[in-house]
Amino acid sequence: MVSQPTFCVSIDLDDLRYYRAIHALPPVEDTPIIFEKALPRFFDLCNKVGLKATFFTISMDLQWDEAKQALKKAIADGHEIASHSHSHFYNLSQLDRCEIITEVAGSKTELETQLEITVKGFRGPGYNLSPTLLSVLAEAGFTYDASILPSPPYWAARASIIAGMRLLGQRSSSIPGRGRDFFKSRNPSKWPNGLMEYPITACGPAMMPLIGTTITSDSLMRNHIVRCAKRLPFVQVEFHAIDFLDIVHDKLDPALAVEPALKVPLSTRLASFEHVLSTLALGRQTPVLAEIGVKR
At what angle do helices 39-49 and 266-281 cross, to 10 degrees? Predict the structure, then answer.
């Protein structure tokens, strides 16, 4: 459903408290560090490669002035703000309809009211969907979803890690999710209710995901994924704000080093991200997700 080769960039603005919960680390008071430290680096990257991105935003973070200012800068720079729910519950897709409406429609209203924009897109926490969630999205006025990550190995690895943690007496806040969603098409499509779906790219024989974690450095895996992605008509790379933080420089809790991206030096990551974005953008239209198919 794209008329010409297309490349899109998105970033999920997940706060550090969610990573602590995923890895069963003790909770600590969260701060707006992703808005103070990570987003300025992401802005610089986008400026270097001349690309605009879609920012999937957790609306409860609007409690911080630092978040509002960073998001307003994103808007002024031509980026898109989309919803990542109000509270980023990993089991959002499993909640009852009223709770989903509060999380999804409520997030849209909060973002639109406080940032004076129109929110068109949504990405589910943990890439998780359900028929009820998709129904609520359409009813709330969203025009597209970007939750699908068609990577069976990613789903299998996540499910295995969650199961392994339980065996050790640890409980992750994450959930495996619907396995069949990770076998869906990597091409844009339309749900029966008219909602567009713009998947995150997964490619190669192993269907490896094109996400920040897999492209942190000049490696055989990164180069293979990029080489395969170049052959596709639609490509979307997904980052997370944590991809742009540094354990030492940003004085993060050393326990967060369990996150794969944080094990790679920040300078190495930034150089690799720049190479990947520049390579995949070559010869393609590069709209934000809400502008796909919009004639200018």
Answer: 40
CB atoms within 10 A of CB 290: 19
Task: Kindly state the tokens that stand for 285.
Answer: 């239209």
Instruction: Return phi, psi of residue 202, to 5°.
Output: -135, 140
Helix pair angle (97-115, 65-76), 10° resolution: 70
Q: Could you tell me where the DSSP H helices lie in the chain? A: 16-22, 33, 39-49, 65-76, 97-115, 131-139, 152-167, 220-229, 266-281
Q: Which of 137, 145, 141, 116 is nearest to 56 (CA)?
A: 145
> Residue 116: left if φ>0, alpha if ψ -120 to 50, beta else—which one?
left
pLDDT at 3: 76
pLDDT, position 2: 75
Q: Which amino acid is at 252?
A: L
Q: Looking at the domain that runs over 6-291, which CATH code has it been given?
A: 3.20.20.370
* Distance separating alpha carbons of residues 145 and 132, to the nearest angstrom: 14
144-172 pLDDT, tens per residue? 999 999 999 999 999 999 999 899 999 99
Contact 38, 245 (CB under 8 A): yes
DSSP conformation class of 208: E
> pLDDT digits over 275-296, tens only?
999 999 999 999 999 999 765 4
Rounded distance between C-alpha atoms, residue 19 and residue 258, angstroms: 9
Cα–Cα dist 222/208, whole Å: 10
Identify the CA nearest to 215 among candidates 158, 278, 270, 283. 270
